[in-house]
Design a protein that fits this description.
By secondary structure, the chain is mainly alpha-helical. Helix content is about 80%, strand content about 0%.
């Protein structure tokens, strides 16, 4: 729970940095969010959403979903629509992987 709250806090700080209007802070937050988005795609495509990670996502969705929506709002409001679309898609696919039915071996 502490890790999840810390990650939500950091995500909210980056979203607020995007919305702050301070150019250097805005650019820093944009580049960090772009790298984090790339890492999320990499983790998803390499099969990193399994077992414990998926269980944590299912358990704490009520914490992470509002944070993700606020991040999307900040990206769209500041004109970074491509990154917002990419962030939405990777979040959607990660949630699909986390909530899919486990395959039963025959």
């Amino acid at each position: 729970m502490k890790k999840k709250l810390l990650s939500v806090f950091i995500s909210t700080l980056f979203s607020l940095a995007l919305l702050s209007g301070i150019d250097a802070l805005h650019q820093f937050a944009f580049y960090v969010l772009a790298v984090m988005n790339g890492l999320a795609w990499l983790a998803m495509l390499c099969g990193g959403i399994k077992d414990e990670v998926a269980a944590n996502l299912r358990t704490y969705i009520w914490i992470s979903l509002p944070s993700s929506l606020f991040s999307l709002y900040a990206l769209i409001f500041t004109g970074h629509t491509i990154l917002a679309a990419s962030s939405f898609l990777v979040t959607f696919f990660i949630l699909l992987l986390a909530f899919r039915k486990p395959e039963v071996a025959a």
